[in-house]
Design goal:
single chain; 288 residues; alpha+beta; Rossmann fold; Tumour Suppressor Smad4; 2 domains; six-stranded antiparallel β-sheet
């Protein structure tokens, strides 16, 4: 018998391009007589199907297939990871560093997964708190990155503290605090390095800093980071978690960031790993 018996299917919002993949997953599960539960977006695409809310999914399911891109997976991970439900992504987005299965290999990969031929890739997360006048006004987790930036394309001034010691003051468009998982996302676009996702490390990457000496830095994952928003800030700013949750911040607010206890479990079929994904997405090893 398979390790997994009750499956959640979660689809990208308002995107009809995922329907072919959704149909393929359901056809496979129906043939194997495996129970599954559909989220609201999947039901909209299929019509006349019963929707299962996220709270029921967390209680009933032991695996979730996410059909979409990295954004869809990260949004689902915010809900499912705390219930220790592993996730498997089917790529109907663009790059898709986290969604492993290509649309043309769904049946093959699902056959492996339900034959217990898979590995589990565990990804660490961050916890971020926004403090105002000594009080916590928001707390969220993030698997890719926590980003502090301006909403109106103006520079903001930030003081970055590392384990209680001043790291630097920057004037920049913002700052990315990234996990190894997020090193191929906004951090990479801002000039940060690619990290192996198993590393216990974080990256701080200034976004378009005023001083070119403000460079990316890799630090220990167990570090505590505090980012203070300058009292002289004259722009609207946000702190964003995985590009999914956005919290407005004000002058003198402090964003406290540390390693979270929440782990994201990614189900990976045979032949799919971090290096194979890099080769495919970045075109490494191919002649120009």
């Amino acid at each position: 018998m398979s390790t997994f018996e009750n499956i959640a299917i979660i689809s990208k919002i308002s995107d009809s391009s995922v329907k072919d993949s959704l149909d393929a997953v359901i056809d496979f599960l129906d043939k194997k007589n495996i129970s599954y539960y559909l989220d609201g977006n999947s039901c909209l695409l299929l019509k006349d199907r019963k929707e299962t809310g996220i709270e029921d999914i967390k209680k009933k399911c032991d695996l979730a297939f996410i059909i979409g891109g990295d954004g869809t997976l990260l949004r689902s991970a915010q809900d499912l990871s705390k219930s220790n439900i592993p996730i498997c992504g089917i790529n109907r987005g663009r790059l898709g560093y986290l969604v492993d299965i290509s649309p043309d290999r769904i049946e093959e990969n699902l056959e492996n997964i339900f034959s217990d031929n898979f590995s589990i890739d565990e990804r660490i997360s961050l916890e971020g708190k926004v403090m105002r006048d000594g009080k916590e006004i928001s707390k969220n987790i993030s698997f890719n990155d926590i980003v502090i930036n301006s909403k109106d394309a103006r520079m903001i001034e930030l003081d970055a503290m590392l384990n209680g010691e001043m790291l630097y003051r920057i004037n920049a468009d913002g700052l990315v605090i990234s996990t190894p998982t997020g090193s191929t996302a906004y951090s990479l676009s801002s000039g940060g390095p690619i990290l192996d996702p198993t590393m216990e490390a974080l990256i701080l990457v200034p976004i378009c800093p005023h001083l070119l000496s403000n460079r990316p830095i890799v630090i220990n994952m167990d570090s505590t980071i505090e980012i203070k928003i300058s009292e002289n800030i004259k722009t609207n700013a946000n702190v964003t978690f995985d590009g999914q949750i956005s919290v407005p911040i004000e002058p003198n607010d402090i964003v406290k960031i540390c390693k979270s206890t929440t782990i994201l479990k990614l189900i990976q079929p045979p032949g799919i790993n971090f290096l194979s994904i890099l080769r495919e997405k970045l075109g490494w090893g191919f002649k120009p």
